[in-house]
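HUMAN: Ready with one sample?

ASSISTANT:
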Amino acid sequence: MRNRKYFAWMGFFLLVGMILTPQTRAEEAHYPPAANRTVSFQKDIEPVLRQNCAKCHARGKAEGGFRMDVRDLVLIGSNTGRVVQTGDSQNSYLTHLISGLDSSVRMPPSGELLSEEQVGLIRAWIDQGLPWPDGINLGRFKEAELEPREVIVPTAKAIHSDNPVDRLLESYFQKNEIEFPERVDDRLFARRAYLDTIGLLPPPDQLEAFLEDDSPDKRNALVEDLLSRNQEYAENWITFWNDLLRNDFTGTGYIDGGRKQITDWLYHSLEANKPYNQFVHELVDPVTGSEGFIKGIVWRGVTNSSQTPAMQAAQNIGQVFMGINLKCASCHDSFISNWTLKDSYGLASVFSDDPLEIHRCDNPTGDHAPIKFLYEELGTVDPNLPRDRREEQLANILTDEQNGRFARTFVNRLWARLLGHGLIEPNDEMDRDPWSKDILDWLATDFIENDFDVKHTLRVILTSKAYQLPSSSWNGQNDKNFVFTGPVVKRMTAEQFRDSLCAITNHWPGEPGTDLKIDNMVDGVTQTRSWMLKRDPFTVAMGRPNRDQINSQRSPYATTLQALELTNGSTLYDLLEQGAGRLISDHGQSKEELVHYLFFYGLGREATEAEKGMVLEMIGDEISAENVEDVLWSLAMLPEFQLIY
């Protein structure tokens, strides 16, 4: 009933608009002036139309008989006549509608009106002849190109760098009128590289050796050394993959066998630096130990048809490896992308032993989607093959070198992990425009050409001047206006925070939540790193997710829960209390030595005279565990400790 009334009133208002003479409307309306510049349809007009008009006048909708999927439909007009007078915005009824001068007939019909600037741009667009580039259809959302794109790397001009990322960034900086900043000092670089590569702070002796080294290539050598530490590298990056692949040790599905760990396979794949295409192939077409990813979670109780293991497999593959959101299209045709129910069910059917009936909003339709990959131009899956052969075919198509989106999605995740902000944000929405298409495409193509070697791409980024620039801030909003000037300040992960305190005190408490056996004995101490432990109140407060869903990016924001846990939580209290005793036995011969060790390990620098005096006063005349515990807590609360600058 509501839609009928809306339709009727829209028809009435459009009819009134056509009865009024253009001269009358021109005399009565004082519209915002047309913009006095040449407009770009793609930059100025398309975003406004998609956001404010397309939901009622495109994608199969034609309120009032008016559609604007393409230019020809705009020119046809509505049920009652023309809506746009090409070349004459003053006498175009569209101008009257979007200006909002008459509250009884306005577009959009609810919500915020278009701004005067937006109205002015649309007026200029009409006055300039309604330019509309070929191939743009408001009935379809923008999609990123699929195939790899070769990028010609320019010659460096003002900077001295052979790294292609830097040479492409120099062009970007010149375009945005940004001076290429100087790199951060050695101390800051080392701290950044250690945490990003192996998830630990640089020990004082290693940091001192690096700072004293005067060889010009020492930063590249440090990166090479860190990447060669296979066990520490795997123990850091497994957290990244546990979040993405929903791998955990406790939680939904583990009680009744409705879920399976992939920890052993995952750890050893990372330790061996397994090529990424092989890594993903073994997840999609499982080998022994990796089948838990495709198995998904068998939820207990009543579940929606979009939550079956087969649909989970489709959703997870789309999101993790292609930067595609299929969750909306698992209940109905998506409202935010071009993906349909048939697309989602077609991919999910690869992982089903029996044909999947399509359910729309959990209601059976009686239809069955043909088995297919999302992009059929990359290859087809034979529906007549058994499930294991279909999974093999799908894995081959997904990881093929011609699937440029597969490579772009992953290198974008690496960039976001290392530099705090992706080339595309959010990094699960790969149809968005990157802030540097050239850097993204070059990294992706280089990744493919180097046989999907993850450490190769990490090396390229870590040794670039782009990674070594001074850090900048970003509030996580207004991403359309983001301009890269350097790595964005990051917070330590929950695992890095805990491991850093454990490393400083050489006290590594906790029982592993996994049966994985690795040699983690160092100088007689078993180093049980945080990724191996079950979730506890401390790691939950510090941002570790429960992994029942994919978590591609942890929140960068501090929370009240974190503040409460850091000040009153028993987990941190016990760690610091016991760690203080161990610290005194190892480094408590003199108070000055203790202060030097804590600051150099925790912050990567010497204490200032003021800091040194304050800490010595906290310690008091006699070194005691209680006082050292207070110093440790104070150090851990510093932003300089918790943040990666």
